[in-house]
Amino acid sequence: MSNRRTFAIISHPDAGKTTLTEKLLLQGGAIHLAGEVKARGAARRARSDWMKIEQQRGISVTSSVMTFERDGITFNLLDTPGHEDFSEDTYRTLTAVDSAVMVIDAAKGIEPQTRKLFEVCRLRSVPIITFVNKVDREGRDPFETLDEVADMLALDVSPQMWPIGMGGEFEGILDFATETVSRPEGPSREFLGKRDADAAIPERFADEIELARGGYPEFDLEAFRHGDLTPVYFGSALKNFGVTELIDAIARYAPPPRPQPAGEEQISPDRDEVTGFIFKVQANMDPNHRDRIAFMRQVSGTFKRGMKLTPSGLGKPIAVHSPILFFAQDRELADTAEAGDIIGIPNHGTLRVGDTLSERNQVRFTGLPNFAPEILRRVQLRDPTKTKQLRKALDDLSEEGVIQVFYPDIGAQHIVGVVGQLQLEVLISRLEAEYKVEAALEPSPFATARWIKGDAKALEEFASFNRANLARDRDGDFVFMAKSPWDVSYQVEKNPELTFSATKER
């Protein structure tokens, strides 16, 4: 397990995350065709964006898992949506990684979504490597970018390389550790040695580079792994600069599998028992087979194909006969897997996000919540004969975490809840493409929702007065549908014996 590196790539949309993902896969020998190669059809599209709407819009809307090997290290790369409307999927994905690469656009610096995702990493003390992308274009002063990372994210920054000029003046990237310069033309990496490197750097950049070498803290592995320091790499994913150094840094510095929280306990990766948790469910990755894959982050033990594991949500063991390792859509059967690996388990509704799988059924991993939706819509079915298909589709998509679905106590129309507007477009697109169900979304009278808990008598009394505002989620739990935040505050004050929660943890 010590040779596993399970990491995510996080960024604001358009910072170059998907391009960087492809170049890492190219460096790892997992693909032989990069996205910008002028090929036809599917070959030209980003390999990690396989869903129809992703290919149409050119954005990632679902997390992809890609496994590859390089120099004896197994890399499990989780590509996450950058768009804020898919923050739930990203949050759950970040529970399954041991480190993250934060991609920053050299011209724009830290953008709102980058900061939001960083805060999620900080909650879990996930170590972060920073990659400042697009340095071959006109951008901000690199010192300004570093100071912003240090100030806004309260992180020590330690540059490991430095751009020699930017935009029209770009002459390459100097790697401080190896004293090599990557040039835009000629040899891709030219070894110079410190004295020759200094001599080869145009005089107008010499002071800047000397300041970059000496003006920041040296890299400290312990501080990095505690989430207090970030090593910074500069490059261009599109032009393939700095990517080799980045993947070397992940191999050298990123932690191997870390212990995972299970209530008061921390489950160590060297525990003999096989344990893991489901952080994502994806239906219809292969539309021809209507398949449904649960993604499990293995936490401990050595998994063997055919093994029986007990899901916490089911209580009885299931045999895992066809575990899958992923390369985006491509997949292969896994005979064994170790702590840190991500394996796909085909199933028909047995496994759900938040489930723990274990041999003895004595462990429950924690920290995978659902969040209260910020947009609620009624679903209007165009063809009333497809009610059953709609229910199946909504159940599938809510299990994946694409939406949440609520069934009102009064009224027949289902209500869907999402965090961001773009999720609604994904819902309509996938209903049509994958389930052949045409539907429209109508305004709902509700603005937000809260899960309600309390003793049976208090719940029943509350329900008798608020039936028109009550629904059940797909687990059958009570949900209060509020018309405004004021409505929530009023009910909280009026019903002190009940709890109104904005999150629900499985």
Automatic annotation (TrEMBL):
TM spans (from-to): none
UniProt-recorded Gene Ontology molecular function terms: GTP binding; GTPase activity; guanosine tetraphosphate binding; translation release factor activity, codon nonspecific; translation release factor activity, codon specific
GO biological process: regulation of translational termination
Highest taxon of the lineage: Bacteria
PROSITE patterns membership: G_TR_1, G_TR_2
UniProt entry keywords in alphabetical sequence: Cytoplasm, GTP-binding, Nucleotide-binding, Protein biosynthesis
GO (cellular component) term, any one: cytosol
Residues given in the record as GTP binding sites: 11-18, 79-83, 133-136
One Pfam family it belongs to: RF3_C
Main location: cytoplasm
Record domain Tr-type G: where: 2-258
CDD domains listed in its UniProt record: RF3 (cd04169)
Subcellular location as annotated: Cytoplasm
Task performed by this protein: Increases the formation of ribosomal termination complexes and stimulates activities of RF-1 and RF-2. It binds guanine nucleotides and has strong preference for UGA stop codons. It may interact directly with the ribosome. The stimulation of RF-1 and RF-2 is significantly reduced by GTP and GDP, but not by GMP.
Entry's family note: Belongs to the TRAFAC class translation factor GTPase superfamily. Classic translation factor GTPase family. PrfC subfamily.
HAMAP family associated with the record: Rel_fac_3 (MF_00072)
Name of this chain's protein: Peptide chain release factor 3
Organism in which the protein naturally occurs: Erythrobacter sanguineus
Name of the gene this protein is made from: prfC
